[in-house]
Amino acid sequence: MAAAHPSWKLLSLVTKRVFFPVKRSQISSAVRFRLSTGFRDKPGRHFSTDNMGDEDVTALVILAEGAEEMETVISVDVMRRGGIKVTLAGLAGTNPVKCSRDVVICPDTSLDEARKKGPYDVVVLPGGLGGAKNLAASPKVKEVLQEQEGKGSLVAAVCAGPTALVSHGIGKGKTVTSHPSVQKVMEEAGHPYTEARVSRDGHIITSRGPGTCFEFALQIVETLRGKEVADKLVAPMLVKL
Question: Which of 35, 125, 138, 233 would be a feasible disulfide site paired with 157, CB 3.0-4.6 Å?
């Protein structure tokens, strides 16, 4: 029997490391799950139809320990398909981040470094209860969100992620949705609440959970790049809306 090609050995190793629980000490630099880089080099803009041109449209996704992996990866993937330059920034630095279901994701850069490359057209907060708690407790995230809101720029949060908006005083009075488990938190903070799969109220976009992430990301694309661009992404991804 012919010997296995070396590439198959690498593929097997990557599969085991990415999709099965691993210890941090077992993660080698060769097999980390990295969503490639997406640094920006142009100033951000208020979200509008002006963003339909050739100028770069950019997104900052903040990745915290305990984040929901589907909400992170689907959001990044769909936005990049829509022509948005995405930077995935680690809240705690550049080390691999263990997500809520033990999938390990490597950020493109640290949040500190990503902030130097800003501003961004949208800041995205994935959910996952542990990840949301870390986002809600972070002074750095508060600063980023306050700067974003101060410019009138887009903030998007999914699942338990909207609780970080409450903690940091972002989007006060805006209609929101969230994972049902944190609905009471949002309502007690004074937010009008909807059970819509995705909600947009001004500069705030919110969504409910892993099963609504395609719609969530498509809403971001539509807001920043237009409905025509977003609509063209649906069929190739076999998304049923």
Answer: 125
Q: For residue 223, how far is the Cα from the chain centroid?
A: 15
pLDDT at 52 over 60: no
Beta-carbon count within 10 A of 60 CB: 25
- In the structure encoding, which two tokens stand for residue 30, read together? 């060769």
pLDDT digits (tens, 9 = 90+) for 13-36: 433 333 334 443 433 332 344 554
Are 46 and 97 within 8 A, CB to CB?
no
Instruction: Say if residues 111 and 62 touch (Cβ distance below 8 Å).
Output: yes
**Given this model, what pLDDT does residue 35 score?**
54
Residues 239, 197, 134, 37: is their CA dihedral positive or negative? positive
pLDDT digits (tens, 9 = 90+) for 211-239: 999 999 999 999 999 999 999 999 999 99
User: Of 99, 106, 159, 213, which one is the catalytic site residue?
Assistant: 159
Which one, of 47, 80, 103, 58, lies nearest residue 223 by Cα? Answer: 47
Active-site residue identified among 99, 106, 168, 179: 179
How many Å apart are CA 120 and CA 114, to the nearest integer? 10
Report the share of the chain in percent with pLDDT over 70.
77
DSSP-assigned states of every residue in 74-135: HHHHHHHHTTEEEEEEETT-SS-EE-TTS-EEB-SEEHHHHHHT---SEEEE---HHHHHHH
Active site residue 159: yes
Place of tokens 């395609």: 214
Euclidean distance between the first and the last CA atom of the chain, given in angstroms as a whole number: 48
Least confident piece of the model among 52-56, 176-180, 228-232: 52-56
